[in-house]
Design brief:
Elements (H helix, E strand, L loop, with lengths): L4 E6 L5 H9 L2 E7 L6 E6 H9 L7 E6 L2 E12 L6 E8 L4
Parallel strand pairs: 1-4, 2-6
Antiparallel strand pairs: 1-3, 2-3, 4-5, 5-6
Length: 99
């Protein structure tokens, strides 16, 4: 279905200080949500996300998300950016129903 695969890790603690530390390490905080699952706080590699963004319009496209070894098809619903530097601050993934 999709050729783009992003790898994410769960277990991220909520809060601004944790998110700032993740960004300093080169990771981007995010959330995975959907109808069948509870919201999961995740982080993904910033370099891989920027590389995917450079290939074209990423918001609204279907992506395969490898979340701790379990692959899910997701849609990127929103990418939040810094207003001046335009760096990615947060990304929202919505899980697709797979029947």
């Amino acid at each position: 279905m999709s050729e783009l695969v992003l790898v994410a890790k769960s277990g991220r603690l909520p809060g601004s200080p944790v998110s700032r530390r993740l960004r300093a390490e080169g990771r981007v905080p995010g959330v995975v949500y959907g109808a069948a699952i509870d919201p999961i706080a995740v982080s993904c590699d910033g370099r891989a996300l920027r590389a995917a963004m450079s290939k074209g319009q990423l918001v609204g496209s279907v992506v395969e998300l490898d979340l701790d070894g379990k692959k899910r098809h997701v849609v990127i619903k929103e990418i939040q950016r810094h207003p001046v530097r335009q760096e990615v601050l947060h990304v929202d993934f919505q899980v697709l129903n797979q029947k």
